[in-house]
Amino acid sequence: MNKEKTITKLHISEVTEKARISVQATLENKKLELPTEYAVLNEKEQEEFTTKFGNKGIPIENIIQMWQNSVREVDFTGSVSKLDLIVVNDQGVFIWENIKIYKFTFSSGRAIHVVLPLLEEGNKYNRRRGVRINIDKVMDVEQDDIMYSVIVRDLSYCGVGFVEPLGSQIDPNREFILHLLEDTDDGEREVGKFFGRIINQKEDENGGVFSGCTISSDHAAFLQRYIATKQIEAIRGKSNQSGIKRVKTGEFWKEDIAEEISKSEEDE
Q1: Is 0.70 surpassed by the pTM of this model?
Q2: How far apart are CA 21 and CA 93, in angstroms?
Q3: CA separation (Å) from 143 to 93, 135, 139, 231, 235?
Q4: What SS3 state is found at 160?
Q5: Residue 165: closest CA among 135, 204, 133
Q6: Distance separating alpha carbons of residues 100 and 85, to the nearest angstrom
């Protein structure tokens, strides 16, 4: 009798350019997940990389440059206590805890960052443990050309939770479209339309029905960046409101993650 093998671990060398990659930083018990990209190497670069690191790490694009281009300035008073690598591929979601990130420059002058995990095998990761943002906002969910008003409670790059105040009306056996809204200085704007499906339902403590849903993996790359930006806005807003003294901002905060926590391989 053939049994389908369940993959519970993934070796770091099995991570490829097809995977979606993010670095999760823990900042004084707050988690911030920032997307990055696998660095595609040419033949000579691959030879240099293998000579230096073997199969114990993966190349990623220069994260300082990426985060400068996609993440807004943030103020905070804490420091990074832990870095984790999260990888999403066709086999599932995997996490490598307590990683190190090093800067590496090829002989050509191209600079990348290298992720070296403490353990070479990553563990299967429960998607619902991923970073979520609280929303609590009324939005529309579309199904079969009918719009239903729901209260979106929280959002991650792979899932959404919402409440139907009037009871369950959305068919859990059919795909829906979430019309994601956000507030701006000029009023509401639609961020985008995201396909999803209900996974489980329960009675909400405040009335109505709460649905836990998955979002199509096609939207993961966009939502990773969107959620990272919202997390940073929340941290910045909290710091500004509480009058906490500014300690690190913008580029210096990102360098604290990528440069100060892990010394460059070039310095060894």
Answers
A1: no
A2: 10
A3: 28, 21, 13, 29, 35
A4: strand
A5: 204
A6: 9
Contact of 139 with 188, CB cutoff 8 Å: no
Residue 23's φ and ψ, nearest 5 degrees, are: -110, 125
Alpha-helix residue ranges (DSSP H) falling in the chain: 43-53, 63-70, 220-242, 250-255
Contact 97, 24 (CB under 8 A): no
Q: How far apart, in whole angstroms, are the C-alpha atoms of residue 160 and residue 213?
A: 5
DSSP 94-153: EEE-S-EEEEEE-TTS-EEEEEE-SSSEEEE--GGGS--EEEEEEEEEEETTEEEEEEEE
CA distance linking residue 175 with residue 31, whole number of Å: 30
Q: For the segment 150-194, what is each residue's pLDDT rounded down to a tens digit?
A: 999 999 888 899 999 888 899 999 999 999 999 888 888 999 999
Domains of the chain: 9-126+245-267 (2.30.110), 133-222 (2.40.10.220)
The amino acid present at 165, given as its one-letter code, is P
The CA-based angle 19-24-26, given to 5 degrees, is 170
